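Fold this sequence, please.
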Amino acid sequence: SRITQQGVLVLKAQQHRSQDLNRLDAFSRLHELVNSVARAPKTRRATKPTYGSRQRRLEGKSQRSQTKALRGRMRPNQAG
């Protein structure tokens, strides 16, 4: 992680041969990091479940119901 136990943010830049360019690179990355965190996340818009997702949910429920029904005691006149 980039933050030490003392709460210091450590950025490492070794792209360039020059220390000044590496320092500028680190500052620009710090700027991008701060800007990305400063933006508020978009609020989620509530939508209705799609037809396909409802069908998949009902199919899963019927399969679980069938599995649980087979766990019961079988009667002699019961087929299946």
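The two ends are 58 Å apart (CA to CA). The chain has two helices and no strands.
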